[in-house]
């Protein structure tokens, strides 16, 4: 089945005026499958407009749902790709730090398994599942957390993926703790918005969580500001729309030259 699909993909890529990829890590594969190098453009996903820095008052309901202490918050899909075994193993390694909390907001196919594992491993004091909440409330939860967590399982395809969750976190101006390979980790290091460790390494994730918790509030705020600045340059919707117009205009000019 894959062979005829690959032939079709090559046929299409060779004929596109432009191929836009949401991660720089996709470029080698696209070129390998027939797209001319000079017609491939990096065009990342933008951060949704709802995600922005917020000031949440002390008495806000979101604060009441979060535990007291240092809060690492994961927001989004609770699925296989997000590698919750690594998160739970890291939480086991930090269980003696009862002031360090792993908070999970969201739902997904792995949610029941995660709840069962939290109970079986007796992690209820430091791992908290808060269920699903409307997208509009997520920036308020993000603002109340000390750092935001993003993870992907160790797999070649995820190593070249830039998860949209990262753009959302950065747009909110919060420090990021990540267990990512490749493109996602590169963006975190380029921006200076947080700490990145390899996927599937619970020991490294636990150590990074402890390191992040040991930083001063101002140091973490600086990480968040750097992430927000980077996001404003690279993932801003208005800037990306202007870039798309530029790409389309250049492609049209090239076509007109060919016709001439």
Question: How would you describe the overall organization of this protein?
Answer:
- There is one protein chain.
- The protein has 260 residues and is an alpha/beta fold.
- Helix content is 49%, strand content 13%.
- The protein is built from twelve helices and eight strands.
- It has helices at 2-15, 27-32, 61-65, 84-93, 111-120, 138-144, 156-159, 164-171, 182-191, 202-214, 217-234, 237-259; strands at residues 19-21, 40-42, 70-75, 100-105, 127-129, 147-151, 176-179, 194-197.
- The strands form two sheets. It has a six-stranded parallel β-sheet, with helices on both faces. A two-stranded parallel sheet has the order 1-2.
- Strand 1, helix 2 (27-32) and strand 2 (40-42) form a beta-alpha-beta unit.
- Helix 4 crosses helix 10 and helix 8 (164-171) crosses helix 11.
- The termini are far apart.
Keywords:
two-stranded parallel sheet, 260 residues, 49% helix, six-stranded parallel beta sheet, globular, alpha/beta
